[in-house]
Amino acid sequence: MTEPLIFELSSPGRKAYSLPALDVPEVPLTELIPEPYLRKTPAQLPELSEPDVVRHFTHLSKLNYSIDSGFYPLGSCTMKYNPKINEVAVSQPGWKDIHPLQAQSTVQGALRLMVELQELLAAISGMDAFTLQPAAGAHGELTGLFIIQAYHRARGEMRDQIIAPNSSHGTNPASAAMIGAQLVTVGTDERGRVNIEELRSLVNERTAALMLTNPSTLGLFEEDVVEMADIVHRAGGLMYYDGANMNAIMGVARPGDMGFDVVHLNLHKTFTTPHGGGGPGAGPVGVKQFLAGYLPVPVPTRRDGVYILDADRPESIGKVRSFYGNFGMLVRAFTYIRRMGSDGLGQVSRDAVLAANYVRARLNDLYPQAYPGTNMHEVVLSGRGLREHGVRTLDLAKRLMDYGFHSPTVYFPLIVDEALMIEPTETENKDTLDAFVDAMRAIAAEAEVNPEVVTSAPHSAPVGRLDEARAARKPNLRWRPGGDQEPAQVPPAGEEKPLGV
Ligand SMILES: *Cc1c(COP(=O)(O)O)cnc(C)c1O
Question: Whose CA is nearest to atom 4 of ligand 1?
Answer without folding.
Answer: 137
